[in-house]
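batch_manifest entry 22 of 60
target: Protein HGH1 homolog
source organism: Corynascus novoguineensis
requested by: lab member K.T.
priority: normal
notes from requester: please return tokens only, no post-processing; we will run our own comparison against the previous entry in this batch. if the run fails, retry once and flag.
--- input ---
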Amino acid sequence: MPTELEELVGFIASPNPQIRKLATENLVPYSTEQPSIFKTEDLLPVKHLKFLIRDHPEIAEHALTILINLTSDRRVLEYVATDERFLGILLGNLVDPAEENANLLAMLLANMAKWDEMKSIVNRKQEPPKGLQSNELVLNQLLDLFVKGADGTYNKRADFDYLAYVLADLSKHPEIRQFFLTKQEYDDVVPINKIKVFTEHKSDIRRKGVASIIKNVAFDVPAHPSFFDGDQINIMPYILLPIMGNEEYNEEEMMGMLPDLQLLPPDKQRDSDHNIIQTHIETLTLLTTTREGRELMRRINVYPVIRETHLHVNDEGVREACERLVQVLMRDEADPEAEGTGEEGGDDDDRIVEV
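--- output ---
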């Protein structure tokens, strides 16, 4: 005899929309408390839930919430993420400016992006909505949605913040990094230049995701010259500003800094999230892989910024990251260990391992 809960799970496939609505609504808490009830019959309930993302918005909302919770399980994640047809439906709904559950779709996609084979999205195409002004490449659509959809400007029901996590997980793959570094023909913009402006955004999710994207892309050492070039990516101000507070520097230190970092207002606050600060410092360390990067950081007075960060942020991870960066910047370039703090060799203790 099936239990009452098992019977309730069966009702999500009911032809009656009122019954589907009641079933999915009541099952949301059990997707975290008793997820096993959705894993019966070779994940048949999950299959039914995937169909419901196109149902009435209220039913779709509950179905998506359940799927978001269930995809923390590796088996369910694989079942959902490897369904090409489902992915196509999800992406099509996501870019629809009238989609009421766009944020939930972005959250589910963020979970799916943890599946390594999702990197194949780099070649995926779909017809873009006219209002998005993007091209057929899905990655460009996601990026444009992230940029143009901030603060409800594309879809009044969504801010698309969770696309930051989608893009961050995808950027762990070399082919996605290359996308971020390659100028796109349809708008003549290098993708990473679209997201760097969000390193000081009000949304913690956006800031965290963008910091991770920049760090992941920084593993591409041949691209470092473009990172430093003021006419190309010019990433340094966008990494340094979030880790700076309202500390005062002496005139010599301040005048040697980048213009964007000079004369900051007295109410300037550094990022409140210690993990984000640590990520930015680790990105700076990656950018010391080449001598050009180390000399640039010495020339633009990165050390005083790191000194003050170490002094004012009470977090072990941040302080350790600061100390590692300072060790590199203070080395004599005649030291044979000075070259290679990222992927190009050097001391194991000085490498940042990609996670």
